[in-house]
Design brief:
Helices cover 41% and strands 12% of the residues. The protein is α/β, with parallel strands linked by helices and 465 residues long. Bound molecules: 6-O-phosphono-beta-D-glucopyranose. Its EC number is 3.2.1.86.
């Protein structure tokens, strides 16, 4: 009999401000990098004009409907909800000296509502967005000054919510900047590696400064980093493929290495030298980086393969993250390869490497849901996906990995990040809205809603397998 989930395991779900809140200019909010990408992070930039519209401008109107949604999460038994604060609600342009009180008050209302149901907030400081003002006027994270703007924002929200929020994350999927520089570090797509890594360096310093500030202001809080858990396997047992896989895994593990160990890993010296990249790292930066995270959080959706066979690599270009498909795995409707055992492998790898608690803060299946004639939604495919992954999480716990919790991605349907689609649904709760923005926004419980309620109520004992 495998070891079960710990009694205080934080079961729940995860959303992000820009994918649920809508109200994109309400109560003084400024434009963010998400707002100027209305077709998603891989959908291009659109200058916004008064009166125009985009699907995220309303999203699922969580800004106004959150009491109803929190109630539904509570009905499922959530112990935890991960969401983010929209930086632009607090500092609309990014460089103001005083925060926007209306924005701060919104999150007070949200956290109070969660507290009413005993739901623990897990809050990301920056989830795929930053003030567009900082991008336009300062060059985003390419500019050192952005570190101070971010620190002011982080300190402001730590002060304000110190009694309400005890779990924090710095930057969502911080390694994603390598694939989406505008979303990650506020640099134009196509920026040079030199520019992107310098911006990443500034962001890593800012992340460490936020860790320090959090520890000072909320001594009983825990703050983690957040990685896109992009585990790669060698496509073959050829030593060249194995070596290449090691190198490519390091490209994302690098972020964790800095955030957990407090300094750049030795292998990056060669990585930078081989590519002619020179990073400006000051003595003050090195000191700042020593403030390290308390836990490691990550998203997990899929794995991919690495090969040194150029023809196969060529074929894979344009796939998500350019990964070569694994011939042994099935794919989702969106071509994301489904690999439940991969989460156990990843958890063991991360725990072996860092010996810090893990928090699974995203995992889920994006799929098309077709309501039956009576309006019910029988999403057995989602139940199977989540069940199979959670069984492997349980295995990892039995392997000895320390895990704080699991928040499945998009417990309520939301706007997808990559292409801002609505038809790519992750939720236990269906939201009546389509890709064109039509629909009543009515919420409905899917079959998976009742399944997840049972998983939480039984602390995982109801899982099959
Ligand atoms: C993660 C992001 O990359 O994956 C989320 O942190 C995102 O914001 C999720 O929504 C799923 O991606 P997508 O494109 O299906 O929404």
């Amino acid at each position: 009999m495998s070891q079960q989930f710990p009694d205080d395991f934080l079961w729940g779900g995860a959303v992000a401000a820009n994918q649920v809140e809508g109200a994109y200019l309400t109560d003084g909010k400024g434009l963010s990098t998400s707002d100027i990408q209305p077709h998603g992070i891989f959908g291009g930039v659109v200058e916004r004009h008064p009166g125009d519209s985009g699907i995220k401008d309303v999203a699922i109107d969580f800004y106004h409907r959150f009491p109803e949604d929190i109630k539904l999460f509570a009905e499922m038994g959530f112990r935890c909800l991960r969401t983010s604060i929209a930086w632009t609600r607090i500092f609309p342009q990014g460089d103001e000296s005083e925060p926007n009180e209306a924005g701060l008050a919104f999150y007070d209302r949200l956290f109070d509502e969660m507290a009413n149901y005993g739901i623990t907030p897990l809050i990301t400081l920056s989830h795929y967005e930053m003030p567009y003002g900082l991008v336009k006027n300062y060059g985003g994270w390419g500019n050192r000054q952005t570190i101070a703007f971010f620190e002011r924002y982080a300190r402001t929200v730590f002060q304000r919510y110190q009694h309400k929020v005890k779990y924090w994350l710095t930057f969502n999927e911080i390694n994603m900047s390598l694939h989406a520089p505008l979303t990650g570090v506020g640099l134009p797509e196509g920026s040079s590696k030199q520019a992107v890594y310098q911006a990443i360096h500034h962001q890593l310093v800012a992340s460490a400064k936020a860790v320090k500030a959090c520890h000072e202001i909320i001594p009983d809080a825990k703050i983690g980093n957040m990685l896109l858990g992009g585990l790669l396997y060698p496509l073959s047992s050829k030593p060249q493929d194995v070596m290449e896989t090691l190198q490519q895994n390091r490209e994302w593990l690098f972020f964790g290495d800095v955030q957990v160990r407090g300094h750049y890993p030795a292998y990056m010296q060669r990585f930078f030298a081989d590519r002619g990249i020179a990073i400006d790292i000051t003595a003050e930066d090195r000191a700042a980086l020593q403030s390290t995270v308390d836990f490691i959080s990550f998203s997990y959706y899929m794995t991919g393969c690495v090969t040194t066979d150029e023809a196969l690599n060529q074929k894979a270009r344009g796939n998500i993250l350019d990964m070569v498909p694994n011939p042994h795995l099935e794919s989702s409707d969106w071509g994301w390869q489904i690999d439940p055992q991969g989460i156990r492998i990843l958890m063991n790898e991360l725990y072996d490497r860092y010996q810090k608690p893990l928090f699974i803060v995203e995992n889920g299946l994006g799929a098309v849901d077709k309501p039956e004639a009576d309006g019910s939604i029988n999403d057995d495919y989602r139940i199977t996906y989540l069940n199979d992954h959670l069984v492997q999480v349980r295995e990892a716990i039995a392997d000895g990995v320390e895990v704080l919790g699991y928040t499945s991605w998009g417990p309520i349907d939301l706007v997808s990040a990559s292409k801002a689609e609505f038809s790519k649904r992750y939720g236990f709760i269906y939201v009546d809205r389509d890709d064109q923005g039509n629909g009543s926004l009515e919420r409905r419980r899917k079959k998976s809603f009742f399944w997840y309620r049972e998983v939480i109520a039984s602390n995982g004992a109801s899982l099959k397998g």
